[in-house]
TrEMBL record:
The gene is OSGEPL1. It comes from Vicugna pacos (Alpaca). This is N(6)-L-threonylcarbamoyladenine synthase. Keywords: Acyltransferase, Metal-binding, Mitochondrion, Transferase, tRNA processing. The lineage of its organism: Eukaryota, Metazoa, Chordata, Craniata, Vertebrata. It is found in: Mitochondrion. Binds 1 divalent metal cation per subunit. It is an enzyme of class 2 (transferase).
């Protein structure tokens, strides 16, 4: 069985072919990051246009690398939500054309389900396991009980941690810093933090008293913004120049975010263990998303998993960020489980009626 996966939910046009054992036959990806860095953020119509320009080539490259033609496919799997509506639309309409032309089953994919299941392609991980997704667009904790059986334990009430790190890095003008100019915001903060002293600033982790597993980053971001403004005054420099205390701020911000993420995750592990939702002796925490590549945050999470006798697993970096492989693999998982396979495109509109696997769970003490 071969599944073609297509991903266009945000700023990457990606495709891959994966077989039922998880072998990646071929993949291709086109990243729009460079264009969006120049405009200081993603402008949806620009992203849509770039997806349109690249989708045909990327899918063709993935098929050619796999040495197969569309008629060899068992199904086509495509991200249908969540994401930027304009971007999702490009992948979906392209896929539906292929589906019609080659008469293949179509498997709509929930982007977060795909991120969560990626670990099963690289490691032997059985259900249930806990997943923490931390990226530029998402922040959530969920218990994965089956291919399409998720219990959402917590999510960010405002922005995602990667988004916050990007904003702080921009505010600190790290793009002008000789050592970090080519790095993403989060990576630049991680790099600079190594040269700083986290104790020079005392940012408090958010939501210390909230009895749930939700996250929040925008309040912290405002406090950091104010601190930067104050420091600029003290150091007598203009906005846009690099503070001499930039490394200390980076270290303190990274430390505070790591504490926050680790504490919320700790709550989720204890919650699941107390209710026997996770294996007592061999529970697994999977951490994925661009922010998961941060080693300081990983160390904080390791302290939590060691203390709760859990195993911490992360997919390799290229599978942590958006890619076509995870979409194809999610298609394989759904095909094997006989879930969500559509045999004609009638009724599939721009936003197909598709059951979101994440169930909002009640808050707990
Ligand atoms: P989505 O949320 O839809 O998956 P995205 O493109 O925003 O999409 P990713 O590609 O997974 O997310 O990750 C990008 C984010 O990860 C950026 O916000 C970036 O700053 C952050 N990031 C990358 N490297 C690091 C790092 N070493 N430490 C912290 N954050 C990082
Ligand atoms: Fe993603």
């Amino acid at each position: 069985k071969l599944v073609l996966g297509i991903e266009t939910s945000c700023d990457d046009t990606a495709a891959a072919v994966v077989d039922e054992t998880g072998n990646v036959l071929g993949e291709a990806i086109h990243s729009q990051t460079e264009v969006h860095l120049k405009t200081g953020g993603i402008i949806p119509p620009v992203a849509q246009q770039l997806h349109r320009e690249n989708i045909q080539r990327i899918v063709q490259e993935a098929l050619s690398a796999s040495n197969i033609s569309p008629s060899d496919l068992s199904a086509i799997a495509t991200t249908v939500k969540p994401g930027l509506a304009l971007s999702l639309g490009v992948g979906l309409s392209f896929s539906l054309k292929l589906v019609d032309q080659f008469r293949k089953p179509f498997i709509p994919i929930h982007h977060m389900e795909a991120h969560a299941l990626t670990i099963r392609l690289t490691n032997k991980v059985e259900f249930p396991f806990l997943v923490l997704l931390i990226s530029g667009g998402h922040c959530l904790l969920a218990l994965v009980r089956g291919v399409s059986d998720f219990l959402l334990l917590g999510k960010s009430l405002d922005i995602a941690p990667g988004d916050m790190l990007d904003k702080v890095a921009r505010r600190l003008s790290l793009i002008k810093h000789p050592e970090c100019s080519a790095m993403s915001g989060g990576k630049a903060i991680e790099h600079l933090a190594k040269q700083g002293n986290k104790l020079h600033f005392d940012f408090r982790p958010p939501m210390q008293r909230a009895k749930n597993c939700d996250f929040s980053f925008s309040g912290l971001q405002h406090i950091v913004d104010k601190t930067i403004m104050q420091k600029e005054k003290e150091e007598g420099i203009e906005k846009g120049q690099i503070l001499s205390s930039a490394a200390d701020i980076a270290a303190a911000v990274q430390h505070t975010i790591a504490c926050h993420i680790a504490k919320r995750t700790h709550r989720a592990i204890l919650f699941c263990k107390q209710r026997d939702l996770l294996c007592q002796s061999n529970a697994v925490l999977v951490v994925s998303g661009g922010v998961a590549s941060n080693l300081y945050i990983r160390e904080a999470l390791e302290i939590v998993t060691d203390a709760t006798r859990c195993t911490l697993l992360c997919p390799p970096p290229r599978l942590c960020t958006d890619n076509g492989i995870m979409i194809a693999w999610n298609g394989v998982e759904r095909l094997r489980a006989g879930l969500g396979i559509l045999h004609n495109t009638e009724g599939i509109r721009y936003e197909p009626k598709y059951v979101v696997p994440f169930i909002i769970f009640m808050q707990f003490a």
